[in-house]
TrEMBL record:
Pfam families: CBM_5_12 (PF02839), Glyco_hydro_19 (PF00182). PANTHER family: CHITINASE 12, CHITINASE-RELATED. The keyword Repeat does not apply. Gene3D superfamilies: 1.10.530.10, Carbohydrate-binding module superfamily 5/12, Endochitinase, domain 2. Residues 1-29 form the signal peptide. Residues 33-75 form the Chitin-binding type-3 domain. It comes from Streptomyces coeruleoprunus. The keyword DNA damage does not apply. This is Glycoside hydrolase family 19 protein. GO terms for molecular function: hydrolase activity. It comes from the Bacteria. InterPro entries: CBM5/12 (IPR003610), CBM_sf_5/12 (IPR036573), Glyco_hydro_19 (IPR016283), Glyco_hydro_19_cat (IPR000726), Lysozyme-like_dom_sf (IPR023346). Keywords: Disulfide bond, Hydrolase, Plant defense, Signal.
Length: 294
């Protein structure tokens, strides 16, 4: 009825020389195809989604990102987002991109858990230019991928190490037990003093209940963000500062595990982290920046 009345009004207005603009019809965006993967092989006619749009391969292609080479035909926006806003939720990594980065992840590591944790450190992936924001997100997730085998492992796999992470010289001791402070979460939080410090910073009693890190996704993600944003580790700066000041991805490696990996000590481990960072920046459509190695 409303549309009919508008049409009648338009006809009448036209008759007396008035310009009329009727509301445009709203079309829903197409459903997104499976996310593009740099490791997948696509034949002519295959489709994939990337950065909020569907793309169709013109011929055989692998590791050629849609929109950057002339082997992909743009099929238009999908899923209600656009190339300039791939993550309407506010985080620079969309859920589709997150799933593309971690195709075999443990269901424990939810995207919603990560989103819920972001409020604890609002400067994370939210400082500087859009490129810097995406570079920091890629750097964090690349290190996380390395630490957890692609978000597969929730806890440290070498159980023989478990009793070693209790420093009884601390005044608070190890109230949860001698072997309770093993590595957990996306950056494998370990040692009683780290559980104490992280819990104090986050307002969560992790000293007495470290098991929350392996049982609650948001808590696990928060501990990873706590380390990333506040701890220098073996390095000279936090991983967050390394990315937002331009010091480079190599300094994030130094902050996380530099004592064991940097300065030529374990180049294969360093290369593993760098390779994943290169892949993730490609997913997000940004350059890697300089200083990739430590």
């Amino acid at each position: 009825m409303a549309r009919r009345l508008l049409s009648l009004f338009a006809a009448l207005a036209t008759a007396v020389g008035l310009a009329v603009f009727l509301p445009a019809s709203t079309a829903s965006a197409a459903e997104c195809a499976a996310p593009w993967s740099s490791s997948a092989v696509y034949w002519g006619g295959n489709t994939a989604s990337y950065n909020g749009r569907n793309w169709q391969a013109k011929w055989w292609t692998q590791n050629e990102r849609p929109g950057t080479v002339d082997v992909w035909a743009d099929q238009g926006a999908c899923g209600g987002s656009t190339p300039t806003d791939p993550a309407p939720s506010g985080f620079v990594v969309s859920e589709a991109q997150f799933n593309q980065m971690f195709p075999n992840r443990n269901p424990f590591y939810t995207y919603s858990g990560l989103k819920a944790a972001l409020g604890a450190y609002p400067a994370f992936a939210n400082t500087g230019s859009d490129t810097v924001k995406k570079q920091e997100a890629a750097a964090f997730l690349a290190n996380v991928h390395h630490e957890t085998g692609g978000l597969v492992h929730i806890v440290e796999q070498n159980t023989a190490n478990y009793p070693h992470y209790c420093d009884r010289n601390q005044p608070y001791g190890c109230p949860a037990g001698q072997a309770a402070y093993y590595g957990r979460g996306p950056i494998q939080l370990s040692w009683n003093f780290n559980y104490k410090a992280a819990g104090d910073a986050l307002g969560i009693d992790l000293l007495n209940n470290p098991y929350r890190v392996e049982r609650e996704a948001a808590v696990a993600w928060k501990t990873g963000l706590w380390y990333w944003n506040t701890q220098n580790g073996p390095g000279t700066m936090t991983a967050h500062n390394a990315m937002v000041t331009g010091a480079g991805f190599g300094q994030t490696i130094r902050s996380i595990n530099g004592a064991l990996e940097c300065d030529g000590k374990n180049p294969a481990q360093v290369q593993s982290r760098v390779t994943k960072y290169q892949q993730f920046t490609q997913v997000l459509g940004v350059p890697t920046g300089a200083n990739l190695y430590c």
